[in-house]
Amino acid sequence: MSSDDLLYLNSSIRDIRNELLYDIYNKKNVNNAFLSFTDLDIYSKDYSFFDRFGKAIRLSLLDERIILTKEQETCLNILSKENLFVSAPTSFGKTFIALEHIARNKDMLNNIIFVVPTIALMNELRRKCFLYFKDTFILITSDSELEQYYQYTKKIIIVVPERISAQLFQKYLDERYIDFLIYDEIYKLNADKKTNKNNSRLIKMNYIYKYLIERSKKVLLLGPFIKNVSFS
Predict the structure, then answer these.
(1) What is the pTM of this model?
(2) Are 161 and 211 contacting, i.e. CB atoms less than 8 angstroms apart?
């Protein structure tokens, strides 16, 4: 993560844990969501037999070895009804929420697009999607793959933002709507006002983002633990 990115992020997990423990030992009220994603939910007032029983029945449809947290289940319930923006640390399992939603709705979803910031993340996500969805969806990460499987109905397209403006991808998206759009690292669309960088790439990325959400039936935005969020 670059120093510029840090302008938009909050404290590290370790710092958050230390602050939470300080509050707990001083008998202050703390948010259960913070306790969950920092692995401190043993201090939660809800950490009872019934809470543990609830965890036992929150098994993932995607992977039966995984038990969803209450916060992940809440996110999935919201996502089943409307669009969602999740701002949380990596340990929260934001990408897993997207994959779990796909698993729960794979019969109804055809065109799924993941937008990720780097090629490395694109390849990592492709491996996960192949593991979980190889029997249901065609995975697309390049022009040649899109050309080869253009007419296939069920696709998961994983791209960096610039790829969307390529001629073939533009043609494909102009012809159909997106059933589920997942845009990762959404904070990178924010301008850095403290430097004098050339923002032509940033402008292009925001144009692509606007184009995508206008063609999407369902949108999931993912970001790290962001200081302030504004949709003005």
Answers:
(1) 0.74
(2) no
- Strands laid side by side in the 155-159 sheet: 84-87, 219-223, 180-183, 111-115, 155-159, 138-140
Helices (H) and strands (E) in the chain, counts: 9, 6
> Euclidean distance between the first and final Cα of the chain, in Å?
26
Report pLDDT digits (tens) over 54-96. 454 567 888 877 888 888 989 999 999 999 999 888 778 899 9
CA-wise closest residue to 220 among 127, 118, 107, 105: 105
Domains of the chain in start order, with CATH, are: 5-223 (3.40.50.300)
Spatial CB neighbours of 6, under 8 Å, sequence gap ≥ 6: none
Tell me the two tokens of residue 99: 């994959």
* Helix/strand/coil (H/E/C) assignment for every residue in 7-53: HHECCCHHHHHHHHHHHHHCCCCCCHHHHHHCCCHHHCCCCCHHHHH
> Maximum CA pair distance of the chain?
61
